[in-house]
Every structure is written in structure tokens, then in C-alpha cells.
Amino acid sequence: MSNNFVRSLCLAAVLFAHMLANAAPSALRLDEPIPVGPQVKVGKLANGLTWYIQRNARPERKLELRLVVKAGSILEDEDQRGLAHFVEHMAFNGSTHFRKHELVSYLQSIGVGYGADLNAYTSFDETVYILPIPTDQPQSVAKAFQVLEDWAHGVRFEPEAIDKERAIVLEELRLGKGASDRMGKQIYPKIFNGSKYAERLPIGHEDVLRSFRPAALKRFYRDWYRPDLMAVVVVGDIDPARAESLIRSHFSRLKNPARPRAREYAAIPARADTEALVVLDHEASGNSVLIRYPLQPVREPGTIRAYREELMQALFGAMLNQRLIELAQQPEPPFMAASSALGKLTPRYHSYNASASLGPRGAAPAIAALVQENERARRHGFGAQELERAKKNLMRSYEQAWNERAKSDSATYAAEYIRNFLQHEAIPGIDTEYRYVQELVPGISLEELNAYARRTIPADSGKLVLYTGMNKPDAPTGAQLLAAVAEAARQPVLPHDDKAVAARLMDKPPAPGRIVAERHDKALGLTHLSLSNGVKVILKPTDFLNDQVMLSAARFGGQSLFGDQDILNARFANAIVASMGVKDFSPLDMRKILAGKAAGVTVGLGSYTDLVAGASGASDIETMLQLLWLKFSTVRRDEDLFRAYVGKQAELARNQSGQPGRRFGDAVVSALYNNHPRAPRALEADDYAKIDLDRSIEIFRQRFSSAKDLTFIMVGSFDADAVRPLLATYLGSLPTPDIPVAYRDVGLRPVTGVVKREVRSGLEPKSTISLNFTGQAEFSETEQLRLAALIEVINLRLIEVLREQMAMIYGGGANGALSKIPYGNYSIGISLPTGPEHVDKVLAATFAEIRRLQEQGPSAAEMEKVKTNWIQNHRRSLRENGYWVANLQAALTEGTDPASILDVERQVQALSAQDVQAAARRYIDTQNYVQVVLNPEKPGAAHVAASVGTGN
Fold it and tell me: With the CA atoms of 445, 448, 451 and 456 taken in that order, what torsion angle do they form, in degrees rounded to the nearest 10?
């Protein structure tokens, strides 16, 4: 080797190092501020309004608009409790350029769904309006900016509209009533430690909502809807210069008040003393415990150093919560699930919290485990292998985000900019963040991380210990909770024992099969492969996302092949097998082996089919296929994990047994299927004791020791030639002994005639109506489309009549399906939450709208709304891997033409009002339906018990 070459090599190395130093985050000083990324343009108008603009191509021909107001319920005066949220409602009920109902109707006409697309929310400190708009027509975009402007300063507040919306908001408040609401009213004053937040829940105060004067509503809008507290977010398929021009033309005219009220943020006092609170309710959905340590102000990551601290927080939380997962999988675990982390209570305050969902052993062992695991981490820290696995997982998640940087949805970016405006979250862009992570994460040492744990986990401080649960005699007292915390803190703790596991799933790949046949479908972009073992594969490489691969397979069989005496064993076979791990590895072992991988596979028995589903990143396809191969290879039997799984499910069932919704659901299923043993009912706690481990394993092996008659569909970011050897190796070597591959009709049929039931359950004045129309029908894609259109029109009518005209519901709706398995049948379900005093009127109005549809059919405007929305959703879905997987799988299962996915727009446009009218007559038989109504058991009897304990 010549000296000149050596010198040249050294020079090249120096130059390369210099380039890295200038390009990598290591060149950035830790105390430098995090810059705003180049992907977004941020500006401010002269009146103080902030704007964000980003051009983004996913989804195509779509624009996400947001109006963000730094004003929420915390700013309400005493006579305005609930009016921040009420203002949000009024924004859809008449403005300068849109009369009442005109806005929603117009947006529906251009394909924007009400609720699913068009929406808004009010929180303590902000109100956000969400408006996704198709960009096909320039006038639609211009009109959308007019909508935002009207929301900002043009809401009308007409007295008649206010009174009508008052009833709707009261229905929304009614919908939220129940155990959680009752318990929350006892909890919030303690959680917020006496601050104003406890008195300003966004839904408001019922007395105020019933009696407020319009002047109070207008005063909130006038005081707080002003440009210096607003941001407009524009992300999507639009020229940034045009977006900026539209913002300036619509929002520059907004003016701030001459004497603006100060926008102050409510303080939450720090907790100094230790206190316990026990809150009980007969309808509680379970028992839980929370230990909340003192609140601290949040410091947003304005510098790279602070960003690095957040990465340490993520690593710390992942490792500590992994330990808690291990405890939950013991044969007699101290809790069903638990977490410990630093979490935000409001955008400006966070605290260290430890919480657990309790099992049959109660609060004491859960508290002991939480306190001792926190102390173990604080005193002894974590191990090198724990940190290495956490780093791999964290870096893989950022890698996936970076891989999809050009294909992330506009709504995701819009949410990020909202957080920047409201919480000052940094927005450097994924390119910069990924570079930060690549540079910073490897340099985080175990010593640093353990020091972080010591300063983050409180050693000894005032705390709130909260127990919530069912009102039973064995519930703990506040004094008992505090004693349990004190006792746990006195116990010595040893370092965590992190057991080593294998480095890989398989020591070597199986002997491969062969690809014996191949054909191509150019129209759909499919490659069909036949393997030597009889397994078939359909490949569709896509460029929709850069780091997503989806896998699916199904064949007939499933639970239908097993007798009624085996139904529980069959129904839970897949969940039980999954709970015990794979091969020689427990689920915890698997988490360790798969650190840094993005791959997963589930298999199971449906009612009439055997199902396989998998997903992976582009670089983890082989891992996904290995997991699949192992599922067909053997079952890991672990009686301890089986007992832990069954015990957890039984406890969940026990906790839900007293809930009105559970009792109502049971009554609906019972009435609809006349107590058939195969009916999809929820289980009682005692039912889980009937599951037999070995029989469940045997059933699973009967179906998943053979891949006979399976066709695997793979869609996503892969090269078809590159995956062929992997498919031959892992799918081509699957065993395929002969097994039954046809389903059995088990005779499950809905009742006929008119069946009406009433359920009395629940303490609040709440009712729910359930209507189910069922019957036999011949399956076809055309009829499937007609039934779906009928459901869409019914939903339009329910919102228009029951909500907007009658103000008797807040939410609710219809759904339906047409199926050919196990026989040609249809089902339509309608669910309508309302008040007991409205039940008869809501039922009458619903059936009146059904008759009107049957007699007159839908209007031209309704048909246009449905068609436009469908076509836009279909165009967007054609660029989604999951949509293709679902359609290809349905074509195989139902025996339909997969190419019909390319003909959807024509089929939709061909739909007529007469088709939907005929569907209404065919599928809604008012002489054949099941009606179940939930009414409260004892009006006015709601009660929640609370007790307090104190300590030092």
C-alpha cells in the first residue's frame, strides 16, 4: 500500500468525519433551542392570530383545517359553567354566512361527515374546531375558510337556536351520567387539590345549562374568541401561498377587544400532606388504586437538553412498566394491570403517579407491589439489558415515523401544531427528531438513567392515595390505604432479577418448500403463488406507506366445528394459547426477544372461520413469518399463565356485572337469540371456571396444526421478488395434513315476530332504545351496497329529526350487515340513548321516519350526500393497505370478484333513490323486530359513598 493512498484514505476519513459533525445532532449544543422544522410555515397576523401551514399529500385531495382557541371551561364565570362548550355547539347553529342547519347540510353535500369528519371539542383550556375538506373544487376550499372565519367571530346566538341546543346539550350531559360521573365529583376536588379545575368541568353545571341567559353566552364569546388567543392550522393538499392568502384575507379583519380580559391560567397548589380517599359506587366498573405524588409545573422541551431529558423519561417509563407487566403475569398477581409514570394532569402540571387495576386480592398487595417496584427502581436502578431493549424499541418507533415522513396523514401533523400552539411542544420535524434520537439515545448511559430514576421517583413526600370501586363491605378505608403504603415503604427491596433469554426466535429456518405455480393480475397489481404444500399466497406490493406490511388468511371451520359443550373452550382457545407464549418462550420472553422489531401475528377461531392476521415493518417480514410458523408448530403449555389469564377475565366479568350497560346488552342478546347457547353473550365470572386448559389446547391444535386450504394475502411495502424465498421457507414448509375446511351451520337464528322487553337498571334518569331487524336474504354485492346506503340515510334522518328537530338525543345511530355465512341473512341495529320521558316519542319518530323512507324513499339531497361521502372515502381508502387486505379477504371468503374494488365509484353512482326505498321495504319489517328499552330502576336514587383518611 503506497503512502499516497494512506494519506488519501486518512484525508477522506477526516473529511467524512467533518461532514458527520456538521450534519449530525452531536454538532448541536445541548442548550441550543429546538428549531421550527422546514416542513411547516408559522406566522402571526398583526392582530396576534397565529397560523401554521404545511403542504402534505396524504390523503390526496384533502385539506385538514383547524381553528384553535386558547379558551375553555376554566375561563367561565360563575354564571357560565358549561357555556364554553355551549359556544362550541352554537358554532354549528347559525353564523354570518350560514343559517341554522345550512352549514352541516352544505358540508355533508361535499362529502364531509358530521361527527366522523366535521367535529369540535372543548376542554379546560382550549376549544378546537375540526374541519376536513376535499380540495377537488377550489370553491369548497375558499368556503371552508369562510366557515373558520364565521366560527372565529360570526356566530349568531339566535334565541330560538339557543333554546333548541340547550335541550341537546342537556342530553349530552345526561349521556355522561353514571358511576364515573358521580365518583368524579368526589375525586376531582382532591385530584386538583382545591383548584378551580375541579369546578370547571367542560360539560358544565346542569342548573346553569337549564337557566343561563343568552347574554352570558355572548359574553364568553366576546371575551375569549379573539385573534390574540387563536390559531389557524392548515395542513394538506394545498399551495402554501394560497393558504396564506386565504388566512390573511379572512382573519386580518378580526379585532381584539379594546379592554381585553387577562388570559390567566389556573394554578394547582402543591400537595404537602398525605391523604387517602375512598370513593365507592354500586355501578362502578371495577376497583382501582392510584398513588399521586405532588404536582410540578411542566417545562416543555425548548432545548435539545430538555428533549434529551424527555427521551430518558420514555426509556425510564418503558423499563419500569415492563417490570409491572411481569408482576401481572404471575399465577396470583398483585393486580390485573398497573403503571408507574410521570404524567400530565393538565398541560401545565404533571406528577409522578402509580396506579393499578385490582384483582380479587384487593388493594393491599397492589399497593405493596407499586410502592416496592418504585423503590426498587429508585434504589437499585435498572440493568444494562433492560436499557438496551428499551433503546431498541424507542429507536425503532422513531425509525418507523421517519420512514413514513412523506406519507403521514395531514391530521397527525395538524394535531402536532395544535399542541405547539397550546402547550409549546417543539415542532422540529421528523427529520430533525430522528437525527436527535440517533445521536442522543445511544449516548444515554445506564448511570444517567438510574440517576434520572432516583430524582424522578419521589422518596418521601405528600401524596394522595385514591381507591375507587364497587360499594362492597370489604372495601378498604382511608386509614387502611395509608397503613398499606407505610408498610410497603418499610419493606426491604432487592435488585431486579432480569433473566436472560434467547437472542432469536428460531435457531435455524425450517427446510423450505417451493413455489410451484405463479400468475399475475395486472389490473389489481396482484401476484398469485402456489406453494408445494398446497398453501396459496396473494401478493400486492404497494407504496402507500414505506414501513407497513399486512398479512391475512381465513378458511371455513372455526368454532362451528365443535359442539355446544365445547363452545367456551373453542371461543377462548386462541386467547388462552396466546397468553402462554410461543415455543419455549413466555410472553415476557417474547417481548425481550422482539425488542427493536415491529412484528406481530394473531391466529384464532371465529364463529365460522379460522383466522390469521399479521403485521410488520418492512424490515421485519421474516420475523412476522417466523412467528406465524411457530404458531402452527406447537403450543406452549403454562398452567400458571392460564390461571392468571382466566382469573383476570373472571374478575373483569365480576366487575362489569353490576353495570346497567352490561345488563342491557345481555337482555338484547337474550331477546334476539332466545337464549341460544351459541349466542354472542358476555360471560359471567363463574363461566370462566368451566374452561379446560388441555381441551382448549387440543381444539387449537386441531385447527392450527394444519395450513390446509389457507390463502395468505400480503399487502404493503415489500419487493415481491425479495420475499419469495421467505414465503417458500416459512409458508411453504407449514404442515398441511387433512382437516375439515367447511363450516357447520349450528342453527343460531334470531327470533321472529315482534318481541319487546324492558330492562330496569341504573340509578340515573337515562334510557337506551335498541331496535333489531333481522331476516333471511340473498347475498350479493349489489344488495350489500343498497343496504349500506339505507343505513347511511337512516343515520342522516336520525340526526336531523331526533337531534336537530326534536332535541331528544345527543348521539346514537344505525348499523347493518348482509352476510351469506352460515346462511343468507341481514341485520339492522338501531341504538338511541335518550331520557325516560322521551322513550315513547323517540320510538314513534323513528318508526315514522322508517315508514316515510318506505313510502317516499330518500331525497335527492340525501342520496347525493351519501354518494359524495362514500366516493371520497373510497378514493382515500384505495391508498390504504388495510382496505386492500379487507377487500381481498372478503372476496375469497364470500366468493365475489376482487376486481369490484376498482368499480366502486360506478356502482355508487348507479344507486338510485328507488334502490334505497326498495331496501327499506325489504329489510325493515315492522312485523319482525326485537325492541329492548333500558330504563332506570329507581329514579333519583343515585348515591356515591366517599370517605377520607389523612396521614403525615
Answer: -100
Q: What are phi and psi of 173, to 5 degrees?
A: -60, -40
Query: 3-class DSSP state for residue 519?
Result: strand
C-alpha cell of residue 859:
331525497
- Spatial contact of 511 and 733, defined as CB atoms under 8 Å apart: yes
The answer to whether 290 and 463 have CB atoms below 8 angstroms apart is: no
User: Cβ(536)–Cβ(529) under 8 Å?
Assistant: yes
* 711-716 vs 536-541, strand pairing mode: parallel
In whole angstroms, what is the distance from residue 691 CA to residue 741 CA?
A: 25
C-alpha cell at 492: 426491604
Half-sphere exposure of 60 (CA within 13 A, CB side): 8
What is the rounded distance in angstroms from the CA atom of residue 240 to the CA atom of residue 41? 8
Burial group, residue 856, by CB count within 10 angstroms (0-12, 13-18, 19+):
exposed
Contact 846, 798 (CB under 8 A): yes
Q: C-alpha 95: how far from its chain's center?
A: 33
DSSP-derived secondary structure letter, 802: I
Per-residue buried b or exposed e for 349-387, using 16+ beta carbons within 10 Å of the residue's own CB = bbbbbbbbbbbeebbbbbbbbbbbbbbbbbbebbbeebb
Tell me which residues of the chain have a pLDDT lower than 50: 1-26, 940-941, 952
Contact 89, 168 (CB under 8 A): yes
As a whole number, the mean pLDDT across the chain is 93
Q: What are phi and psi of 226, to 5 degrees?
A: -145, 155
Q: How many residues does the chain have?
A: 952
Cell reading at 160 = 330560538
The Cα–Cα gap between 275 and 47 comes to 47
Separation CA 224–CA 594 (nearest Å): 50
Q: What's the sign of the alpha-carbon dihedral 834, 835, 840, 844?
A: negative
Exposure class string for 468-482: b at 16+ Cβ within 10 A, else e: bbbbeeebbebebbb
Q: Output the 3-class SS for 28-40.
A: CCCCCECCCCCCC
Q: Count of H helices and E strands in the chain?
A: 30, 25
**Predicted pLDDT at 950:** 57
What one-character DSSP code corresponds to residue 689?
A: G
In angstroms, the CA 710 to CA 557 distance is: 12
Q: Cα 40 to the chain's mean position, in Å? A: 27
Q: Which residue has the cell 440493568?
A: 383
pTM of the model: 0.92
Instruction: Name residue 492's amino acid.
Output: P
Query: Which grid cell sits at 208?
Result: 346553569
HSE of 693, CA atoms in CB hemisphere, 13 A: 16
Cα(first)–Cα(last) distance of the chain, in Å?
76
User: Which grid coordinates are listed for 479?
Assistant: 386509614
CA-to-CA distance for 74 and 186, rounded, in angstroms? 19
Q: Confirm if 673 and 679 have CB atoms less than 8 A apart.
A: yes
- CA-CA distances (angstroms) from residue 689 to 607, 641, 698? 22, 15, 18
CA of 601: how far to CAs of 502, 551, 621, 632, 736, in Å? 19, 9, 11, 11, 19
- β-pair partners for 288: 357, 468
The whole-angstrom separation of Cα 5 and Cα 8 is 5
Where b means 16+ CB within 10 Å and e means fewer, 410-438 reads: bbebbbbbbebbbeebbbbbbebbbbbbb
Tell me which H or E stretch contains 63.
strand 62-69
> Nearest 5°: CA angle at 890, between 815 and 921?
35
Amino acid, single-letter form, for residue 87: V
C-alpha span between 690 and 682 (Å, rounded): 14
From its phi and psi, is residue 846 left (phi > 0), alpha (psi between -120 and 50) or beta? alpha
| Residue 889 near residue 554, CB atoms below 8 Å | yes
Cα separation of 917 and 440, whole Å? 63
- The three three-digit cell numbers of residue 35, written as one number: 428549531
Other Cβ atoms closer than 10 A to 244: 15
Residue type, 37: G
